[in-house]
Design brief:
381 residues, alpha+beta, Beta-lactamase, three-stranded antiparallel beta sheet
């Protein structure tokens, strides 16, 4: 099995876990980066990136990290809060007058970032190609009345989060979300973190494939059954309206578009570096980082049909719920991405971790592969 990169001998047990993962015949490729107090102690990659198994994973291979990109867009908005250009509790209607449907006028940025806005899904059925039409998706979102009273419950917004935060960035920063992320986060910290790749980068992107026989946990089973049996349900519409949300990840148009909820592309190094930047105060001041890491919503998630716990734009540790645990420490935070990617940090141990893979598992929250890596890491710290 192809394996490359560098690792500190003190973390050899973590490297062993990663190497074992790559030996699974269903595991095509992955990369892992661990940084402790700003120092990179593990930066490794291995396997293949294409569906035919011919191209080896390289140092600069990019993979779609799906929802693991959500905290990056949140930080851009929190930086604007720090600049006084945006308020957490001002109705979004002030910045975005079209967000004025019955009940929408009470939605705030705090609601959006903690999945309490009541807009996790678009109501009207949309054609597959609508996914790539920003203005059409905004209009459909603007015409969706909240599914619950904003602030009264929470339900994860897998895709609508991207149009909500992306449009706010555009209206307030005056540039598209790709540019804002590049100039505010990726370029200053020199991170391989891209909201949609350029035409030139397409050749660096790994194909994403489902793993056959991946173990499905009860939360994933429940969600898949609901989506399959009730296409009109909020959960089904959140993940599959338009249907192209579920089927487009290897298409060039998906890789090139800007969808801050789901189509960030990165290396493990780029994603780990984002968390190190947060822990070291390079992206947010202490007050806003604390706000980001404060519990805003917890318990029954109306979209995912399992318990979730959110700060602002990030998922917080749930130690008592194994499928939702980072397996690192009680104050861990970050975000999983569909199929297995995980970016997270433990502020107490000053550690940032990113696991990026092109072989999709079946978990709704944390992937057992990433949890195994973190469990081994915890013993080394």
């Amino acid at each position: 099995m192809h394996l490359d990169g560098s690792s500190d001998s003190a973390f050899s047990s973590v490297l062993d876990v990663f190497s074992q993962l790559l030996e699974d015949p269903e595991q095509r490729g992955a990369s892992l980066c661990v940084q402790v107090a700003g120092e990179t102690v593990l930066d490794v990659w291995g396997g293949v990136i294409d569906r035919h198994g011919e191209q080896l994973w390289q140092r600069d291979t990019l993979v779609n990290i799906f929802s693991s990109g959500k905290p990056v867009a949140a930080v851009v908005l929190l930086q604007m809060v720090a600049e006084g250009r945006l308020q957490l509790d001002t109705p979004l209607q002030e910045y975005w007058p079209e967000l004025a449907q019955q009940g929408q006028q009470h939605i705030t940025l705090r609601h959006v970032l903690s999945h309490q806005a009541g807009l996790p899904a678009i109501l009207e059925p949309l054609a597959a190609e609508a996914l790539y039409d920003w203005s059409q998706m905004l209009a459909a979102l603007e015409n969706t009345p909240p599914w619950w009273t904003p602030g009264q419950a929470h339900g994860y917004a897998p895709m609508t989060y991207g149009w909500l935060v992306g449009e706010l960035i555009q209206r307030i920063d005056g540039c598209d979300p790709r540019t804002a992320i590049a100039k505010r986060i990726a370029e200053p910290l020199q991170l391989a973190l891209y909201l949609g790749v350029s035409e030139q980068q397409l050749a660096q992107v790994g194909d994403v494939m489902r793993m056959k026989g991946a173990v499905v946990d009860t939360a994933a089973m429940r969600l898949m059954q609901t989506i399959g049996s009730n296409p009109q349900s909020m959960s089904a519409k959140a993940f599959a309206n338009p249907t192209s949300m579920m089927t487009s990840t290897n298409k060039p148009e998906w890789r090139l578009m800007q969808q801050p909820a789901a189509n960030m592309h990165a290396t493990a190094r780029g994603l780990a570096g984002f968390y190190t930047g947060l822990l070291q105060g390079q992206l947010l001041d202490e007050e806003l980082l604390n706000a980001m890491l404060t519990e805003h919503s917890a318990g029954a998630d109306l979209t995912l049909l399992t318990d979730t716990r959110f700060g602002l734009g990030c998922m917080l540790e749930q130690a008592d719920q194994l499928p939702a645990s980072y397996a690192l420490g009680p104050h861990s935070f970050g975000h999983p991405g569909a199929g297995g990617t995980l970016g997270c940090a433990d502020p107490e141990r000053e550690v940032s971790v990113a696991f990026v893979t092109n072989s999709l598992g079946a978990s709704v929250l944390m992937d057992p592969r990433a949890q195994k890596i973190n469990a081994a890491l915890k013993k080394c710290l």
